[in-house]
Design brief:
2 domains, six-stranded antiparallel sheet, mainly beta
């Protein structure tokens, strides 16, 4: 069923029609609207990142699962690039000091609301909450990362055009901690006309398409076949927003000489001399000195974003879009 969502009680008027300088002054004068009470293993502010700055040594960063971030923003009537909270493995608790329209997407998790909401509590749906409401996210039943969006976005200062926290470079706002106070911004679009946006279940055994290269020729002849073997690779606990360290059959180098540093991309499978691949995620370094045997298809990165330690990933070779230029 589709229903129309009316504005939440006591929500301030949107300020998008005001001059930018005046909006900034108005934002700065407003008191914080959200208090972080607990963060779980990790909680950061994320938007879609700061692409296009790699030549300056700045990675894109941004939400690891951009699909879920964009969906959360659409559900509350935000521009898709608005900043939201990315919570890893649950445990996030926030208190709202004024009424707000919120949505939670990504890894499905139990949710507890105290203090009241104007409609049912659940994932993938817009929810009105009142001043004094506390929202707690439990441990996800599947997947890794959950996104909390609020109408107007999380208002933190822009750094190089984005509000994303880059955990490797230390750019953007600091990771959230208990006691962090957050303002709600003013960048909004039309109110949503949706009641629920159901999502498909996360796969128990994720399968990721891989485009070969650009350094697959640096490996022995059967390396790609080994990478794509049915047994796959196990996600280790030494994984984070920078990358997923995998454990499985070694991918042996053909050459013993070192590579000079060269650019890397999100989704690259870089292989150190020990032969255990690392799948780069949003906060990956902009250059690397180990050969890249392949790159995960961009459309499959949201699946990799939710791979949990102990889970096995399987790779399948995809040559249909293989336009990678091989390097000597």
């Amino acid at each position: 069923m589709t229903v129309s969502i009316s504005p939440p009680i006591s929500e301030p008027n949107d300020d998008n029609r005001l001059p930018a300088d005046y909006r900034l002054d108005l934002w700065a004068s407003r008191p914080p609207c959200m208090e972080v009470l607990a963060t779980g293993p990790s909680a950061t502010i994320q938007d879609v990142g700061r692409p296009g700055l790699a030549e300056l040594g700045v990675g894109a960063s941004g939400a690891v699962d951009r699909h879920s971030l964009r969906l959360a923003n659409r559900l509350v009537g935000n521009p898709e690039n608005n900043a939201a909270i990315e919570a890893t493995f649950g445990g996030l608790t926030v208190r709202f000091t004024r009424a707000a329209l919120i949505a939670v997407t990504g890894a499905p998790c139990p949710m507890t609301v105290t203090g009241g909401a104007s409609r049912g509590v659940g994932m993938y749906t817009p929810m009105h909450v009142y001043a004094g409401t506390e929202l707690r996210l439990g441990m996800p039943t599947e997947g890794m990362r959950t996104y909390l969006a609020v109408r107007g976005g999380i208002a933190v200062p822009l750094v190089l055009g984005a509000r994303a926290t880059d955990t490797l470079a230390g750019l953007g706002p600091a990771p959230l901690e208990p006691g962090s106070m957050l303002r709600i911004g003013t960048q909004t679009a039309e109110y949503p006309n949706v009641d629920l946006a159901p999502q498909r279940a996360y796969p128990d055994r994720p399968v990721l398409r891989v485009l070969p290269g650009p350094r697959d020729h640096w490996f022995v002849d059967d390396a790609l076949a080994t990478l794509c073997a049915r047994d796959g690779y196990e996600v280790t606990a030494q994984s984070n927003r920078i990358g997923i360290r995998l454990a499985g059959p070694a991918l042996r180098h053909r050459h013993v000489r070192e590579l000079p540093p060269e650019p890397t991309v999100e989704g690259a499978l870089q292989v150190p001399p020990a032969g255990q691949p690392i799948l780069f995620l949003a906060d990956h370094p902009v250059t690397g000195g180990y050969p890249v045997i392949g790159v995960v298809h961009p459309d499959d990165l949201w699946i990799a974003a939710h791979a949990r330690p102990g889970q096995r990933l399987r790779f399948v070779l995809d040559r249909s879009a293989d336009t990678t230029e091989r390097q000597p």
